[in-house]
TrEMBL record:
PROSITE patterns in the record: ADH_SHORT (PS00061)
Gene Ontology terms for molecular function: oxidoreductase activity, acting on the CH-OH group of donors, NAD or NADP as acceptor
Name recorded for this polypeptide: Short chain dehydrogenase
Species whose genome carries this gene: Caballeronia calidae
Gene3D superfamilies (UniProt xref): NAD(P)-binding Rossmann-like Domain
Taxonomic path: Bacteria, Pseudomonadati, Pseudomonadota, Betaproteobacteria, Burkholderiales
Family to which this protein belongs: Belongs to the short-chain dehydrogenases/reductases (SDR) family.
Pfam family, one: adh_short_C2
Superkingdom of source: Bacteria
Length: 259
């Protein structure tokens, strides 16, 4: 339970879902954790939950809009002044933007990239100077199986997620000599509130859920905690030679040729 003992981590979009699960898993493994979140109420609630479940947890919530580079930089400065220099950054904040390419507005395109790609770069750019200066660090970007598999009707989300993989690889190679590792995780179907909301929005939620489960080789979808433990591994000293890589967490779905 001390795989991250002594480390300081920042997790964006940590108020709920995968981000909240990562923050909790990090705290359980001994890290001091900053929850950087646009919806500060959800971040405060998750921080309180972590304190109640993890004795002695060092956790703070910081209001952060990842689309604003200056605000992300300020958040990093506040975190480092409050709980110490950052060893780990998890760029988890993201949104789903699914449009028809020919009817999509410029605002739809910009909104998708502002959060799903620019937000990742803003986080990396804010922490890299300190990590490079200290000669250590691990950045974990939450991508998606949309980064290498295309589902019709989901444009431009997969374009942004392809960009996240490119950013991960480029920065991982750029800063490898400085002992800063940059990796990604590509979750498939994960049972977050967004997934539940999508099922519940369908005419027959039960049938929609079953149809999703039927597509999965393991006949279930993933849990946020299963993504979180992959993030723990990449953030820890157990993965010192994993860099510029992407770990897929999808129960084998993306390896399936056809249904």
């Amino acid at each position: 339970m001390n795989r991250l003992a002594g480390k300081v981590a920042m997790v964006t979009g940590a108020g709920r879902g995968i981000g909240a699960a990562i923050a909790l898993a990090f705290a359980r493994e001994g890290a001091a954790v900053a929850l950087a979140e646009l919806d500060i109420d959800t971040a405060n609630a998750t921080a309180e939950r972590i304190r109640s479940e993890v004795s002695g947890a060092r956790v703070i919530a910081v209001p952060t809009d990842v689309t604003q580079s200056a605000q992300v930089k300020q958040a990093v400065e506040h975190i480092e002044a409050s709980i110490g220099p950052l060893d780990v950054l998890v760029n988890n904040a993201g949104i789903n933007v699914f449009c028809d390419p020919l009817t999509m507005t410029d605002d739809d395109w910009r909104r998708c990239f502002a959060v799903d790609l620019d937000g990742v770069w803003n986080g990396c750019r804010a922490v890299l100077p300190g990590m490079v200066g200290r000669g250590r660090g691990s950045i974990v970007n939450i991508a998606s199986t949309h980064a290498f598999k295309i589902i019709p009707g989901c444009f431009p989300y997969p374009v942004a997620k392809h960009g996240v993989i490119g950013l991960t690889r480029a920065l991982g190679i750029e800063y490898a000599p400085n002992h800063v590792r940059v990796n990604a995780i590509a979750p498939g179907y994960i049972e977050t509130q967004l997934t539940l909301d999508w099922w519940n929005a369908q005419p027959d939620p039960k049938a929609a859920r079953q149809a999703t489960l039927d597509l999965q080789p393991m006949k279930r979808i993933g849990q946020p905690e299963e993504v979180a433990m992959t993030a723990v591994f990449l953030a820890s000293d157990e993965a010192p030679f994993i860099n510029a890589s992407c770990i897929t967490v999808d129960g084998g779905r993306s390896a399936l040729y056809h249904d």
